[in-house]
Amino acid sequence: MQGLLEQLSRRQLIWQGSAVRQNIAGWPSGYPEFDQALGGWPAQGLVALQSLPAIGELRLVLPLLGLLQQQGLLCLINPPQQLQAEPLLAAGLQLHKILLLSQLTGADGLWAAEQVLRSGLFKAVLLWQPCLSQVAGRRLQLAAEQQQALLIQFSTETPTLSLPLALALSLSPTAQGLQLRVLKRRASWAGLEFTLNMQAAWPALYPQQNPVQFTLAAVG
Predict the structure, then answer these.
(1) CA 30, CA 8: separation in Å to the nearest integer?
(2) How far apart are CA 53 and CA 183, in angstroms?
(3) End-to-end CA distance of the chain
(4) Averaged pLDDT in 10-residue chunks for the chain of 220 residues
(5) InterPro entries given for it (predicted)?
(6) 176 and 197 in contact (C-beta within 8 Å)?
């Protein structure tokens, strides 16, 4: 049993709560609150983001995608809405370095994600997929880590926490941005919650909440 535990520990598949956490983050997020709470995004592997659609989940990763695109290509698979070029360009992304695959079935989307990762040309794959099986999750995690890339899965469903996830977050909207809750984090504890203020990056979408001023007029 001790030999098995040592083998799993060397492969970073278990973590002892008494151990000092190693820094596994590799990419700054572009948001001070995110980097202060989590140290940034994982350098590679499988990341799951659970949220309702169109609450800012794509804006959360846009600064990250800008950094990753300096190292390779990006692939977006089955986004739920038609993407507009203007916000992507405003975020500094180069459209000719983005591969967009739409209307793939669940199995075809998983196959495409794995093949794109294994090509070694892509630094990030964004996959909108309801759920991942243990087999699919493990295959995608291995492909991402072997090529030092990120696979980011977006879903409205809570991810299966037994999957080999480097990071899993639950997102909910706030007046100024997003509330984030850590569901799983490799080599660290879950349960952390913090608020992400997006007003500085997206002032038109998150206007300042100014108090209403009333003027009293004399009556008579």
Answers:
(1) 33
(2) 18
(3) 90
(4) 55 44 69 94 97 94 96 96 89 95 94 97 96 94 97 95 95 94 88 90 68 41
(5) Cell_div_suppressor_SulA, P-loop_NTPase
(6) yes
Question: How does DSSP classify residue 96?
Answer: G
Cβ partners under 8 Å of residue 200, min gap 6: none
Q: For the purposes of burial, counting CB atoms within 10 Å of the CB of 129, is it exposed (0-12), middle (13-18) or buried (19 or more)?
A: buried
Q: Is the pTM of this model over 0.85?
A: no
Residues 6+ apart with CB under 8 A from 157: 50, 130, 131
In the chain, where are the structural domains located? 30-76+98-167
CATH code reported for the domain at 30-76+98-167: 3.40.50.300
What is the model's pLDDT at position 207? 67
**164 within 8 A of 174, measured Cβ to Cβ:** no
